[in-house]
Design goal:
With 111 residues, the protein is α+β, with helices and mostly antiparallel strands. The protein has 5 helices and 2 strands; from the N terminus they run ααααββα.
Length: 111
């Protein structure tokens, strides 16, 4: 298992809330791609909360998803976390993006 402490710290830097951290922890501990139902069971959070946080994690590119077909023939997503190097590179890119959005350093505000 990868170092959860570093993953947790990166999640803190990005302002990811506890449900999102639980999802990242679960995906870091598992070798499989997980369905929403499996993530709900593993995190003991509501389906609504899990889906909301998965959307944020996918938007941040910290979690990826792929389409699969259920036993009943329906389409569903299965989620997985990036490998460590890619995960931390993505965190760094997001932090850099946020810093650039703040504007040039040392420039004083004028009224």
């Amino acid at each position: 298992m990868e170092d959860w402490g570093k993953i947790h710290e990166a999640a803190e830097l990005l302002g990811i809330k506890s449900t999102g951290k639980k999802i990242l922890n679960l995906l870091a501990r598992t070798e499989r791609k997980l369905s929403v139902a499996e993530i709900v069971a593993g995190t003991k959070r509501s389906e609504r909360a899990v889906k909301e946080h998965l959307k944020k994690l996918v938007d941040l590119k910290l979690v990826q998803r792929e389409i699969s077909v259920t036993e009943k023939g329906r389409l569903a997503y299965r989620y997985f976390r990036l490998h460590s190097d890619d995960f931390f590179r993505t965190v760094k890119q997001e932090i850099d993006r946020r810093l650039r959005r703040l504007g040039p350093r040392g420039k004083k505000e004028t009224d």
